[in-house]
Write a structure and sequence with these properties.
By secondary structure, this protein is an all-alpha fold. 52% of the residues lie in helices and 0% in strands. The protein contains three helices and no strands. It has helices spanning 11-22, 26-37, 44-53.
């Protein structure tokens, strides 16, 4: 290993680090946006009803029924 060796840092990593340095609230905003859609309590009774109501799909959807 050379004496003046620097670890490699990709352009994407540099961009993300620069973006976070310019806007320190970025991660908190991303987490708040994610919480709007994904981080919610699940209704297990509704999920069970949806599973029961699911209609099985045929292997080839475009084939005509005989």
């Amino acid at each position: 290993m050379p004496l003046f060796w620097k670890p490699y840092k990709s352009d994407v990593t540099s961009f993300i680090e620069e973006l976070k340095a310019r806007k320190p609230t970025l991660e908190a905003e991303q987490r708040a946006g994610r919480a709007l859609l994904w981080d919610r309590e699940q209704d297990r009774t509704a999920q069970a009803g949806w599973r029961e109501a699911k209609v099985p799909q045929p292997p080839y959807v475009y084939q005509t029924q005989r």
